């Protein structure tokens, strides 16, 4: 319902904003809160009556049956600002719209390349060696349903630019939402001065060794999220929540989260790179709690892909509430897992968690200058058996971690981290490839324009082997089949990890038996990989988000079923 709202540039003041809002909110009854964030300072909440705001705004709201609660800060058409509109409905539903951009018309008539060139030229004029810029326009939705009630529904639109300047090993980074030529020039000059100010303090002096890339990579989807009514998204999430609620009366809490994101990204740098890309990422999460007497269990499941709203037509998305409900009810009759040392067969989800968390992060090349990886002296050496192959691949079609160019404009490519048991490749951005004298391979990612790009994973997985899953189980005399993931921790610098599986099944005489719960595995990643002795031919990727350095990016991890001998297993 909010897609009809115009961008902020078209408003000349609060009167225009409110008139437009009231036109589209007349059918809603509740409380309207208008707030403003003005970078770089956040103003304290103030009652509008104490600030002498125009009473015509109150009259506009009164005519629609809505009430102005607070007004945060002041609006100026000459400054960049973000407007937050919060509509609290009687059903406890909360609508939030974030509108951002420059408060004038210049952005509409200015191409992204012109804006980028203005910033780059300003930075180079200060004596900078290298500068890059990312212009981003992102629209996102988040809807949360708890026990059938909409607790949170957010529609956000964010626009801005992230700019970096580099000189002799020193970086400066800045972000702005002032997407005008004047704003770009100011940001370019400012970030260049930041880099120059810290030039003498850096210990590693090097040059950026990159290439020029020019391309457009639009993404075609069947049903763009911006074309879908907000109510349709809410109804889809409610249907999933209703599935779980009606499955069994022992399910005492349901939580369903729907999210989608559409992004346009333009990347340019002083080497001549000019890249335009698009992305479209939906996700649905089902989290349930079941109770039988004093026995309380939880289950979680999620689906995320790279597509439009058509992902809701898939059987997996439509039935996620039912599949999670079935799991949580089965967990009520599960037994506590035995502890000790055991052979384990990991399913694709837990296998992917291990490969991503315990190994993949250690392959991110910014660990090498910082000496924070257990793999520091392992490049070109064996890190597992010959049958072990580990890949990070952002070029897979339709996957949540996929992209066409990274956030520095380097083409995405398949990265073979481990080939026949040998560590062969790292995940690089322009800085690490320059410092380590290796090739950039498209691994620079950033959460948004407000964050600098750093080496990150995409879709990370163990390659399939030759065993069938049935053969792998039948060949295991005694052990535990571990499934999915609850929580855990890793220390990439030391190689230590602990993961708790969502659930598991005892393997006895080659047969899958009793369901068990609260089972964890722990160890040193290189020791564990050395014990992999069977890799199945199946394959599955699981969607998630990955956190590092204060940034969260979408990803996938997985692989086949894999057997590991003599693993420390903890039952809780």
Q: How would the blueprint of this fold be written?
A:
Layout: H1 14-25, E1 30-37, H2 55-62, E2 66-71, E3 81-88, E4 94-101, H3 112-124, E5 130-146, E6 149-167, E7 170-176, H4 181-197, E8 214-217, H5 230-247, E9 251-269, E10 274-292, E11 295-304, H6 315-318, H7 320-331, E12 335-336, E13 340-346, H8 348-360, H9 367-370, E14 390-392, E15 415-419, E16 422-423, H10 430-435, E17 444-445, E18 454-455, E19 459-462, H11 469-474, E20 478-483, E21 487-491, E22 496-500, E23 503-508, E24 511-517, E25 519-524, H12 525-530, E26 532-535, E27 540-548, E28 551-559, E29 562-571
Parallel strand pairs: 1-2, 4-6, 8-10, 12-24, 13-20, 19-28
Antiparallel strand pairs: 1-3, 3-4, 5-6, 5-9, 6-7, 9-10, 10-11, 13-29, 14-15, 14-19, 15-16, 17-18, 20-23, 21-22, 22-25, 23-24, 25-29, 26-29, 27-28
Helix pairs in contact: 1-2, 3-4, 5-7
Strand content: 35-45%
Spans with pLDDT under 50 lasting ≥5 residues? 1-110
Number of structural domains: 3
Class per helix and strand makeup: alpha+beta
Shape: globular
Biggest sheet, open or closed, and with what strands and sense? 11 strands, mixed
- Cα-atom radius of gyration: 26 Å
Percent helix, as a range, is: 10-25%
Tally of contiguous helical segments: 12
- Span between termini: 48 Å
Overall pLDDT metric: 85
Total strand count, please? 29
